[in-house]
Amino acid sequence: MHVRVLWQQQTTARTTERPERPERPEQPERPEQPERPELAQSPDAAPRTARDELRDLARAQREAAADLRRQAEDQANQVIIRNGVPVVPPAPAIPGIEVHTGGDGGIPPQVVDLAYGAYAMIAVMVIGWPLARAWGRRLERSGHAPALSPVMGEQLQRIEHAVEAMSLEVERISEAQRYLTKLQAVQPGETAALRSGESR
Known about the structure:
By secondary structure, the protein is mainly alpha-helical. The chain contains 5 helices and 2 strands; from the N terminus they run ααββααα. The protein has helices at residues 2-17, 37-77, 109-141, 150-185, 188-197, and strands spanning 80-82, 85-87. The protein has a two-stranded antiparallel sheet. Strand 1 (80-82) and strand 2 form a beta hairpin. Helix 1 (2-17) runs antiparallel to helix 2. The longest helix has 41 residues, at 37-77. 0% of the residues are buried.
């Protein structure tokens, strides 16, 4: 703000120093004349003056910014004392981050939820751990299979004998299948030799 005011003051001072030129009507072209030394220096002098003005303006802006920075540092370093107690300045605001200084008298609700969750987890661990161990030991002790009743034993024996008999019959059927496959594979002259040589 201070820099803008300085710049406006300098621009208004510049405009008041130079009177505006009235527009000139176009003049017909003149034949080329040799340049005069005074005229040759005046166009070069005007840009140098403008450059100097721009440099002065930039220097003034830098000095004004430095003054503002110094004033801000001085204000930041001042200690304000009210009722004999130094006042701490508030923390600067960071966009997107809320800083709770405790002035509103409450704890943020997210912190309260986290605390409730932590207490509940600790309670479950303290109570649940011994209960889980006791239940696991009970399952280990009662993990032995109960003895079979005599009726179940007899039924299992009968099923076992039936399975053995079925396996013998399946073996006989597969043997007969192999024999028939052999007979179909050999030629007719060799069939008689097989019948006489192989007896069952």
